Amino acid sequence: MARHSHGEVPMIDVQVRGRSDRGRVREANEDHYFIGVLRKLVEVQDTNLEVRDAVRELSKLDAYLLVVADGVGGVAGGRRASQSAIFSLATFIGRTAACHYDPNVQQENEFLERLEHALQHAHAVVRSLSTPGRGPATTLTMAMIIDRRAYIAHVGDSRAYVLSRGRLRQITQDQTMAALLEDEGVDVRNAPRLANTLASAVGAQEMTPAIGLLDLTPGDVLLLCTDGQTKHVSDTEIAEMLASDPDPEPVCNRLVDAALAGGGTDNVTVVVARADG
Amino acid sequence: MIQKKVCMVGVYATGKTSLVRQFVHAKFSDKYLSTVGVKIDRKPVQVGGQDVNLLLWDLEGRDGVQDIQTSYLRGAAGVIYVADGTRRETVTQVFELRELVQGAVGAVPEVLALNKVDLADQWIVTSADRANLAQVPWHTFDTSAKTGDGVEAAFQWLATAMVKSP
Fold first, then answer.
1. What pLDDT shows up at residue A129?
2. Which chain A residues are closer than 8 Å to B75 by Cβ?
3. CA distance B12 to B4
4. What structural domains does chain B harbor?
5. Is residue A23 part of a domain?
6. Which domain CATH number covers A28?
7. Are A169 and B36 an interchain contact pair (Cβ–Cβ within 8 Å)?
8. Residue ranges of chain A whose CB lies within 8 Å of a chain B CB
């Protein structure tokens, strides 16, 4: 059902589902995902105000927090890294994001800064798990959807995509050594391992978060996924699957099943969010 | 510290992202990756001894001017229009772009970056174009995201104008 935020700007409803799988080769699953709804609650216990309905409206404003993380640095370490990163990020955002349900420009600027702080916080927590520089570490790709705006923060080589009007586009850029060197004009075709080496990760020596945002329109589908998905399923296939069903649950299943059918050489995790009018 | 939101606006492939990258990281890459939505970077600068944090909103360039999403412009304290000197249509489109932007943010300090001056021998900007551009109260810089020419000066001029702006 369509809801309205302040100023009668139509809000979008978001349907979200996620799925994670160990894959066919790995002994354990070092990926994690998180889907949370931040809800402002104003409980009116008693009042003689005539604007009771307006107060009720405050309680309806939602923000969605979606995260995927792919841990690296040995089974136990990687698992712990991705779990700790998501937990500390969600906790930080849960504690600090309450004033951003109806952001003005100043608050939005502060919010963007706070997103970076949230990632720095997660980074510090993961670094505390081990000797600096020796892992573990984790990728982290998150989206926070407030109203129709999706704020994206990204570290590592997990990805965020958006399918809009039938066209799939990758929002994030992989932070791998191969991408970094290619950027510098170095030919990396003979060094395939560099594509799997992270140039930036939460808990690693280098962590350079990329921050962005995107306004969603009804019908848009947002996908966050770890590289276990994109190793085995092409962008064209991903686009077809995202468009295949308005319910994100079967879409998640199709995506993961396709990655497993393609070899399942890595853990695979997806979060699919569909914006409805 | 004062924060100022700056929007980078232009049609596709004019070099908006490369200009930000050169300004913030002093780097350039020939590889073209189109921006989806908005990329956000920040860079502290000094204006008259005062620290100013520039929040750089690099807006996705679209094929046509009307395709630019004005919702991203809200609250911009300054705007950098980017045109590619080797593509004349991007130079003529900035007038239309400016109308769209002004409708969304009102009168704010503006810079026009005529980009890719490292390819000046391939520029298709006529003297009539230059004369038309000079009619607009923006400050024009010939820039190169590749060599860095004019980049620092363009951002610094805008930062100063924003701080002085009421």
1. 86
2. 104-106, 108-109
3. 24
4. 2-164 (3.40.50.300)
5. yes
6. 3.60.40.10
7. yes
8. 104-106, 108-109, 112-113, 150, 152, 162, 169-171, 173, 182-185, 210-215
ipTM given for this complex:
0.91
Counted domains in chain A: 1
State the CB neighbour count (10 A cutoff) for residue A217: 12
pLDDT of residue A5: 39
Find which of A152, A154, A186, A188 to mutate to test the B interface (most B CBs within 10 Å of its CB): A152
How far apart are the C-alpha atoms of B35 and B57, rounded to whole Å? 11
pLDDT of residue A8: 39
pLDDT at B134: 94
Q: How close, in Å, is residue A152 to chain B by CA atoms?
A: 9
A135: left (phi over 0), alpha (psi -120 to 50) or beta: left
* Nearest CA distance, B132 vs chain A (angstrom): 33
Does A109 sit within 8 Å of B37, measured CB to CB?
A: no
Residue with tokens 């391992």: A193
Residue A261 included in any domain: yes
Query: For residue range B20-56, what is the model confidence (pLDDT) as tens digits?
Result: 999 999 999 888 889 999 999 999 999 999 999 999 9
Which of B92, B37, B44 shows the shortest CA–CA distance to B60? B37
